[in-house]
Specification:
- Two copies of one chain form a homodimer.
- Chain A is mostly beta strands.
- Chain A has one domain: Sandwich (Jelly Rolls), CATH 2.60.120.10.
- Chain A contains one helix and ten strands; from the N terminus they run ββββββββββα.
- In chain A, strands 2-3-4-10-5-8 form a six-stranded antiparallel beta sheet.
- At the A-B interface, β1, β4, β5, β7 and β8 of A face β1, β4, β5, β7 and β8 of B.
- β1 of chain A pairs antiparallel with β8 of chain B, so a sheet runs across the interface.
Amino acid sequence: MGVVHRQTGRDGTFAWEGVEAEPYQGGGASAGGSRSVLIGPREGAANFAVRYFEIPPDGRTSSDRHAHDHGIVVLRGRARARLGQDIREVGAGDAVYIPPDEPHQFETLGAEPFGFLCVIPSKEWLKTRGGRR
Amino acid sequence: MGVVHRQTGRDGTFAWEGVEAEPYQGGGASAGGSRSVLIGPREGAANFAVRYFEIPPDGRTSSDRHAHDHGIVVLRGRARARLGQDIREVGAGDAVYIPPDEPHQFETLGAEPFGFLCVIPSKEWLKTRGGRR
């Protein structure tokens, strides 16, 4: 059966009915933030997951490099994105693709939290390709 | 290398640098709309794709049923969603999961276009599970 998680955030914030925002540690001393799994195993999704991350002002995601790729769409705020050797500024509405094994990190810019959707493929699929998540 | 498609839409509309909005036919006589592949084979994404669909007022998506599942996050507007036997109203910010083989269709409600992100798994992954896209 289809699952709907209704948006309950107001005034440009994001929260969803039936979805718990878990603490997300991120990277560095300025860590703090949240991770909300909108679509994943709990919804019965076996092929991919869609998560929402929110990183506070002065915060950053952990510096990551792994075999799974990311599809990202920014919902609010701005960040400095490190994508391999590249530094890019990204903001609300931008779409970002991070290929497998590319080092990446996002650092919030400005006074607004940086919020983004992040798609990952299923662990099982990656196993068939010799990767891992 | 990471790919960034910058959002160029203004005043609540959506468009992306380096992404062409293709015509999307949809279902019924009131068809018309667009499909923008934000992350897919062109970006090097082999595990999933992220597309943006926009359905005009009085328009609808095609009535679909297939082996691949969908992860959806609504970016603008409202729609009547048919999810199997269920009819739900969905709007900006809502997240929707449509499992494999569930009949589904979205019909725009109100005067604003209905715009949504739609994630699909890769064809190759579905083949390993005996499905198709």
